[in-house]
Amino acid sequence: MPALVALALPAFVAAGCGGSPVQDAKAPRGNFAVSVDRADFPSDQQLARNSTMTIAVRNSGNRTVPNVNVTLKCGRGLAGSFQTLNQNPDVADPRRPQFVLDTLPTRTSTNRPTLDPAPVERTSAVTDTYPLGQLPPGQTFTFKWKVTAAIAGPFRVCYHVNADLYGDAHAVPGAGSLPLAGSFTGTISNAAPRACVGADGTSITTNCR
Length: 209
What we know:
There is one protein chain. The protein has a single domain (about 25-205), classed as Immunoglobulins (Immunoglobulin-like), CATH 2.60.40. A hairpin with a 6-residue loop joins strand 13 and strand 14. By secondary structure, the chain is mostly beta strands. The termini are far apart. It contains one helix and 14 strands. The radius of gyration is 23 Å and the shape is globular. The protein has one helix at about 1-20, and strands at about 30-40, 45, 50-60, 65-70, 85, 95, 100-105, 130-135, 140-150, 155-160, 170-175, 180-190, 195, 205. Helix content is about 10%, strand content about 40%.
């Protein structure tokens, strides 16, 4: 009896595997025209000061983009573009967060204190990729990352706009679009910011004239 069971099991497994449909068989395919209307991040940064990186993506085609998203990554050496590499050969992991993420792109506004130690809630399990969902024709999604500079020195943040997380849907630039892939470069200074008394005569501000 045990021998008969052992022989029958592969046939059962094979039948189960062969009958399962392809999961992305009905996934949208082809090229989806999108336009990057805005892409900016301050090149002059200050240690421990917060800033915002903004990328505005508009659907300039006539089909709904399946799941518009932006990937932040510079080559294979870094897990994410908000990181830098420690040049000390003795460290186990040379990757260091050059910017601390305070707020990630979402379709609803969130309030989060600067340098909050709690993990930032993500909308996707895909590393370094931030999706905002379906983008209908003519509409715009604005991706915003609020960050705080943590390590002084030169920085480079790379981005790439995509039409979907998986499958054969590809983003192509619409007429007049900024590049769908690019990078922001600059320097984080560790110099103490200039401070002065505000217009009210009591508060301290860094917006000095």
